């Protein structure tokens, strides 16, 4: 297979006059073919989602976390295809007071609740195409071994001591809260009860002898880590927030509870009267899945990227790196943080009855449609609001009309009767813009389109690296619009295959549009894998031609052979993405309520 990078395409040697270089920002020339940087590092990459509490069924926020991780991981696999180079874990967080109480309230044994809800997460993730390589449950034996080993290390390094711990405990958040984070709220019977200021969840006063971790020793090491690696926590506002937190003293952290109070968890090694704090237990899942404490884990740690919601930033950016440093390990490579989904302007909650069921959404909008919506509309830096009409509007305009319409326009029998990838004519579309001649048909906007699509893979990769997947999709969508503009401008339906004057230009217009579609299909694979497969299959692109490392765009334009030219298109398999019928009963109902 011919390897022509976008870089080589743009910076082709030996050309005089105006080249595409003039249309591109210089940063596109600095980084080499996609995949090369990762290959050169020879690095392995390990992506994780949070592990989800099993006290309630999954909602769209959980799916969003998993989708972000899935898209990052799929994009990475397209850059570095070796199966051995990438790992991706998700799972369920099954211990702790919250689960113990939820099981009691449901009249179930904790194991029954865990089995039931963990299965719901597994089913959802299967249906949504989450391509994880491991699903961990913290009730598994392998995890108990890892947690107890990790505990032993902290103990041996003198970082745990026994002491009286006193304070407010919020079971819903599974954390101690300082006085300043607690307020009073009047209950239904008029009495006032203490609640967490941030979440409104009830808190209770707890005074116990526990094991305590010397967290206070790690304030400066954490500051050094974050100041030395400005991208450790991405996006930047979250990095800044953690550094601000670290300006204040760090109190030591209670890392166990009395077993008489919390029995649903992992016992402290050598002291059955204490159960390990659920957050320490949960965080170690990231090591369990890479084989810890066996030495194999070292080939995956610390090249780890944690994808988390903003609600659990403190646990991942302070407690976890401190625990790791305490155990003699490095902090994770990256912590990618996202904000939350609200529903019609309100926080999603069982009590408000506004929890959006992700499985219903996958049914209504299709797996690819709903994946596209969440990743296109979800902005990590701030909260996003969900409502049904928004999904329909986005999918109809971007997937059905713009992308589906473009494919249809270029492959329809009436315009492309031979059902092939037509030949590109360099006389009609010379590589140097501004040439004048009787056969030159390309216009300035057409060169702008070629440049936009040629630089798109690099742009998309940069957005993935910065955890701005929505911007990657915005960039693809903008190029789809530009390509539709190109087709509209040259109206191939007005050109005639029989005419020796029209035919080379008609073929060229279709060739360029199909090449654009091939790039879009390749770049959409991490987000809409089924739709991208359908698109690429329709274009006749084989499974081995879909990676990013060798993605070349319009090689003919700079005089290289194009492996697709003259190739038969794949079979017609119907609309790429059918419009969502606005008159569907459920939508009418949603409007009325
Ligand atoms: O916190 N919008 O589990 P969890 C977007 N078990 N994402 C949301 C969301 C929303 N409205 N609500 C939740 C826990 N999430 C712990 C984690 S990890 C070692 C232990 C996402 O089930 C967000 O990523 O309460 C959040 O961090 C995650 O779901 C887990 O929530």
UniProtKB/TrEMBL annotation:
A Gene Ontology biological process term: methionyl-tRNA aminoacylation
Segments forming domain Methionyl-tRNA synthetase anticodon-binding: 444-542
InterPro entries: Anticodon_Met, Met-tRNA_synth, Met-tRNA_synth_2, Methionyl/Leucyl_tRNA_Synth, MetRS_core, Rossmann-like_a/b/a_fold, tRNAsynth_Ia_anticodon-bd
Gene Ontology terms for molecular function: ATP binding; methionine-tRNA ligase activity
CDD domains tied to this protein: Anticodon_Ia_Met, MetRS_core
Reactions catalysed: tRNA(Met) + L-methionine + ATP = L-methionyl-tRNA(Met) + AMP + diphosphate
UniProt record similarity statement: Belongs to the class-I aminoacyl-tRNA synthetase family.
Protein name: Methionine--tRNA ligase, mitochondrial
Species of provenance: Callorhinus ursinus
Phylogenetic lineage: Eukaryota, Metazoa, Chordata, Craniata, Vertebrata
């Amino acid at each position: 297979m011919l390897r022509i990078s976008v870089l080589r395409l743009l910076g082709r040697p030996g050309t005089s006059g105006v080249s595409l270089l003039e249309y591109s920002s210089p940063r596109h020339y600095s980084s080499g073919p996609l995949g090369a940087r990762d290959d050169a590092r020879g690095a392995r990459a390990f992506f994780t989602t949070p592990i989800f509490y099993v006290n309630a069924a999954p909602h769209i926020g959980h799916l969003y976390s998993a989708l972000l991780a899935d898209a990052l991981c799929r994009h990475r696999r397209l850059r570095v295809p070796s199966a051995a180079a990438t790992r991706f874990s998700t799972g369920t967080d099954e211990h702790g007071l919250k689960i113990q109480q939820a099981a009691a309230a449901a009249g179930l044994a904790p194991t029954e609740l865990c089995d039931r809800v963990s299965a719901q997460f597994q089913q959802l993730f299967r249906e949504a195409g989450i391509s994880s390589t491991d699903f961990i449950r913290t009730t598994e034996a392998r995890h108990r071994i890892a947690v107890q080993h990790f505990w032993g290390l902290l103990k041996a390094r003198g970082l745990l001591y026994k002491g009286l711990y006193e304070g407010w405990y919020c079971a819903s958040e599974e954390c101690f809260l300082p006085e300043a984070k607690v307020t009073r709220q009047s209950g239904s019977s008029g009495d006032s009860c203490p609640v967490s200021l941030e979440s409104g969840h009830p808190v209770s006063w707890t005074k116990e002898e526990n094991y305590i971790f010397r967290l206070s020793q790690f304030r400066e090491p954490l500051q050094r880590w974050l100041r030395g690696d400005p991208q450790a926590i991405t996006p930047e506002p979250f990095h800044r927030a953690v550094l601000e937190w670290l300006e204040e003293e760090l109190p030591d952290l209670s890392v166990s509870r009395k077993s008489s109070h919390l029995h649903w968890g992992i016992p402290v090694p050598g002291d059955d009267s204490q159960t390990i704090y659920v957050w320490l237990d949960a965080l170690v899942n990231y090591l369990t899945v890479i084989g810890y404490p066996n030495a194999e884990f070292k080939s995956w740690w610390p090249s780890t990227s944690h994808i988390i919601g903003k609600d659990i930033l403190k646990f991942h950016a302070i407690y976890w790196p401190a625990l790791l440093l305490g155990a003699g390990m490095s902090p994770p490579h990256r912590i990618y943080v996202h904000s939350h989904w609200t529903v019609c302007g309100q926080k999603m909650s069982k009590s408000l009855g506004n929890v959006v069921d992700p499985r219903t959404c996958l049914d209504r909008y299709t797996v690819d449609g709903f994946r596209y919506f969440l990743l296109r509309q979800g902005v990590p830096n701030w909260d996003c609001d969900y409502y049904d009409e928004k999904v329909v509007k986005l999918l109809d305009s971007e997937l059905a009309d713009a992308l589906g319409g473009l494919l249809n326009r270029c492959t329809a029998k009436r315009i492309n009767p031979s059902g092939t990838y037509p030949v590109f004519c360099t006389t009609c579309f010379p590589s140097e813009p501004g040439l004048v001649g009787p056969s030159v048909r390309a216009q300035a906007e057409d060169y702008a389109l070629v440049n936009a699509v040629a630089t798109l893979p690099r742009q998309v990769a940069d957005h993935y690296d910065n955890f701005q997947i929505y911007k990657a999709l915005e960039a693809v969508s903008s190029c789809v619009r530009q390509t539709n503009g190109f087709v509209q401008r040259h109206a191939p339906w007005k050109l005639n295959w029989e005419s020796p004057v029209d035919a080379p230009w008609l073929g060229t217009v279709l060739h360029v549009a199909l090449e654009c579609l091939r790039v879009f299909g390749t770049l959409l694979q991490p987000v809409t894998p089924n739709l991208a497969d359908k698109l690429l299959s329709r274009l006749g692109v084989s499974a081995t031609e879909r990676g990013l490392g060798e993605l070349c765009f319009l090689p003919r334009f700079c005089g290289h052979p194009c492996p697709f030219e003259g190739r038969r298109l794949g079979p017609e398999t119907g609309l790429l993405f059918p419009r969502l019928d606005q008159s569907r009963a459920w939508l009418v109902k949603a409007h009325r309520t």
